[in-house]
Write a structure and sequence with these properties.
mainly alpha; two-stranded antiparallel ribbon; globular; 423 residues
Length: 423
Amino acid sequence: MQQRSPVQIAQLYGSVASALVGGVVAAYAVAESRVDDFSFSDGLTSVVIPPQWAGATAAVVAAVGVALLQRWARGGLATVFAVAGALAIALPAFVPVSAQISVTLNAIGAGAFLAAAAYPTKSHRAAQIALALGVTATTLYFGAADLWRDRVARWSLTLPGDSYPVPSTVSVWILLAATLLVSGVAAVARPPQEPGDIDTRLVTLGVVLPLAFTVLYVSLGSTSTSPESWVTAVAISVAVTVALAWRLSPHDGRFILVGLAVSAVSISTTRFSSDWTWAMPAGAAALALGVVVGWKRPMPQLGLGLLGVTALSGLSDSPLTTVSYFVVLPLALGLAVTSCLPVAVGAVSSGAVLPFTLTLFSVSATFLEPAAQEFGWSNGPLVEYGPVTVNTPTPLAVLAATATIVVAMVAIHLKRVRPAVVT
């Protein structure tokens, strides 16, 4: 049997590792950049520092970056994207940067880094699964980061003349290692594509959706919104997403719809404390099981059905909710994502980022309680005991999220395709 060369080994297995690491780093950077007092801001600042702006900026940069890399199909350019993205993320570690500026700078870096990690994944099912799960799982379970680091507060409001620089969202040493991996794999990658091989419909979706979500957030779904306005914003967001996904090829469109469903399930947030003995192993095992089942027998609708059950469990606000979000959700996530891949690179990158691009569920919904709006803070309590907790919003928000997942399920059913081809 002929022995593979180091380049062939890197192309076979390196893209999976690169996609996973790139997805995790990009999603973590976006989540970590959240400014603690963003709900108190006004004017232009209220637009450019919330998590919605960070997610949308990263998503647009990633969509444009993926399109450019496909247009020229050069690994060297992908390496430049990885290095430039890492430098943007790491800059606050070397130069004083305020919270207002760091949100945008960090998001641009995260988007460029994600584009570089996505470049070698074309027609590579395992690599695309790694990328998508790296982004979505990191976004949904970002609270687990509290297990190994004490988060430094990030404040945007300061006294006149005072400066409050913020740290880098990702450790410089972790960024260095991740950059070496992502840029190295991108440099030797030979994805099966020709220069100019891009789908303008995907680029349009990748740019228009984040901008539309941001406009809806600012006008109807911000932290001071009423329940009626929030529901209106959610309905319009779902309609726009389904309409743009419907214009894509069947495979690409249904993965975008999976991303929409995953966004909706983020309606309840997870928190970890020091006693996490059962949650992490159980969740990892459930995620792996979902991937294996989805790889062997794609069943996206079953995966979305389990996502719907998980979201609906928020109505009980009981141990059932905790079990659903730490056991059922990983299973559903692995099954739904794996069942819909492979797709075009632009589809996997734009679909995977929807959970942090559409923050009406993960951010705005936590402010629907009257007390949260009065004091300008979310209704998520700080819990210092127990293995894990799940903070649920109002019943209206839970029902709206569940309805969103049902809409995605119906749209996927109507947009039926043959099972994804294993490559």
